[in-house]
Design brief:
alpha/beta; five-stranded mixed sheet; three-stranded antiparallel sheet
Length: 327
């Protein structure tokens, strides 16, 4: 087996994060896949590179030597890719590379940007990992990224990346079957869901940790299924699970969306960008303005969330003379 760039990237990720789980998330792969890859590398070299323990993965002396040699190589590779992409972009004309964690407003945001910047090519990358998107902004592979971080479990923002907060604290609602006993209430208490099976996506940064902490604080230890949220919506429709959801989500015939009492689950939403060698300030202002407008429109059409924001006199809903949010 010959070592390849992807192998060096994996070793650096493990060394930088100190954890196979965190490294796998950073690399966009599963932990078992990364563990198997590390085992193949160590077998090819004939010696272990990391010692795995309860507190994480610590490099062996050989591992430290490998990391010392691998990091400059990866830095040079990264610089080569960034310089090549920058040159390609310069020759291709105006562009805007957008990243985002899954959110209802992204489609409308991109649509608004295309209308506002008709001569700019707009590219979109959606990823479950805010950490990966922020790293791409830091590396110059994305111009901006709209991400969320779970309350109590902030994501690491790389050096040189700035953030502009859109919503300091967005409460998370709950999706359930319309036939659920709690669906008849305007808001739901966690205790009303203590006998339910929950579904959460553990690949989303902080999602499982945040939910586990909130449920534990409420004295609830429900059955948990791990899976993506597309699967969760189908499971909700079959009355198999309840699951957290964005407050901008709209009810469907097969799904009821309800606020949680006292808003125990929340996230922060922000736009990340790199001032140095990044988009011009005027472009960042335009991108943020359209993001704010897209979010405001989504919040306005989500009745339960709109009512909450109006009661709080939130600046997100600055109504015009017709009672609609200003664009």
């Amino acid at each position: 087996m010959e070592l390849e760039v992807r192998h060096l990237r994996a070793l650096c990720a493990i060394g930088d994060t100190g954890s196979l789980h965190a490294a796998a998330r950073l690399l966009g792969m599963t932990q078992p896949s990364l563990t198997a890859q590390l085992r193949r590398i160590e077998n090819a070299l004939g010696a272990p590179l990391f010692v795995r323990g309860r507190t994480g993965s610590r490099p062996t002396p050989l591992g430290l030597t490998m990391l010392h040699r691998a990091r400059p190589i990866m830095a040079e590779m990264s610089a080569l890719v960034i310089d090549t992409q920058a040159e390609a972009v310069r020759s291709a004309g105006p562009h805007l590379r957008i990243g985002g964690t899954a959110n209802r407003v992204i489609a409308d945001w991109v649509h608004r940007l295309r209308a506002r910047l008709p001569h700019t090519d707009t590219y979109l990358r959606v990823d479950v990992s805010a950490t990966s998107l922020l790293e791409m902004v830091a590396a110059g592979q994305l111009d901006v990224a709209f991400v969320h971080e779970v309350e109590g479990f902030p994501v690491r923002v790389p050096d040189g990346v700035h953030k502009r907060v859109l919503v300091e604290r967005e409460p998370q609602f709950i999706a359930m079957s319309p036939n659920h006993p709690a669906a008849g209430e305007p808001e739901v208490k966690l205790a009303d869901l203590s006998d339910d099976q929950w579904m959460v996506d553990p690949s989303v940064d902080g999602e499982w940790e945040g939910l586990r902490e909130v449920l534990s604080a409420a004295g609830i230890n429900p059955r948990i299924l791990h899976g993506d949220y597309l699967t969760a919506t189908h499971m909700v429709a079959l009355a198999e699970v309840v699951t957290p959801c964005q407050p901008t989500s709209r009810p469907r015939v097969e799904m009821a969306i309800r606020p949680l009492y006292d808003d125990p689950l929340a996230v922060r939403l922000f736009l990340a960008y790199r001032p140095e060698n990044g988009p011009a300030p005027a472009l960042i202002d335009a991108v943020y303005h359209e993001l704010e407008a897209a979010y405001r429109e989504a919040a306005w059409h989500a009745v339960a969330y709109r009512q909450r924001l109006l009661r709080a006199d939130s600046p997100l809903l600055r109504a015009d003379g017709r009672g609609r949010p200003r664009p």
